[in-house]
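Is this the right way to post structure tokens for a design question? Let me know if I should format differently. Anyway, here goes:
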């Protein structure tokens, strides 16, 4: 197994913490929020996908990714993330884009550094850890929101 295959397998498996939550989701679930929190379930789904697309484009160099990361730029829930079909399609687009660009990395690419304003300078190997933890963090929030919201 190559380094790229190992990172891809690790990321894809970790992402199931998020994707498994989407299987029984209803449109009514999207408006759920936890007490004393700002972000709805719909916002969290959109945010995870927005950040995955930003990683595909800005960290891993995918030039064909189309992303307008509204959840990142506005930093709050506007209440607009209520269309289940659109959110599911968007998160699948994010998955496909990030998967596709990770697959294109050579084993040597993982030691290349990238610099972003959000997390400074990291190797691509460190960045894959960042996107894994980001998705898992918000998947935990989504799980609690769906259960108790």
């Amino acid at each position: 197994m190559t380094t790229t295959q190992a990172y891809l397998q690790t990321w894809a498996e970790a992402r199931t913490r998020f994707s498994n939550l989407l299987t029984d989701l209803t449109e009514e679930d999207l408006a759920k929020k936890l007490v004393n929190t700002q972000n709805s379930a719909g916002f969290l789904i959109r945010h995870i996908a927005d950040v995955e697309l930003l990683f595909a484009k800005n960290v891993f160099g995918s030039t064909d990714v189309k992303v307008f990361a509204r959840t990142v730029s506005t930093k709050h829930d506007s209440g607009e993330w209520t269309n289940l079909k659109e959110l599911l399609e968007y998160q699948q687009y994010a998955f496909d884009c990030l998967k596709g660009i990770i697959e294109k990395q050579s084993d040597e690419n993982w030691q290349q550094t990238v610099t972003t304003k959000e997390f400074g300078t990291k190797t691509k190997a460190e960045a894959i850890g960042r996107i894994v933890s980001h998705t898992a963090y918000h998947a935990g929030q989504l799980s609690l929101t769906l259960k108790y919201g």
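Format looks fine. Someone answered above. Worth noting: Strands lie at 113-116, 120-123. The two ends are 42 Å apart (CA to CA).
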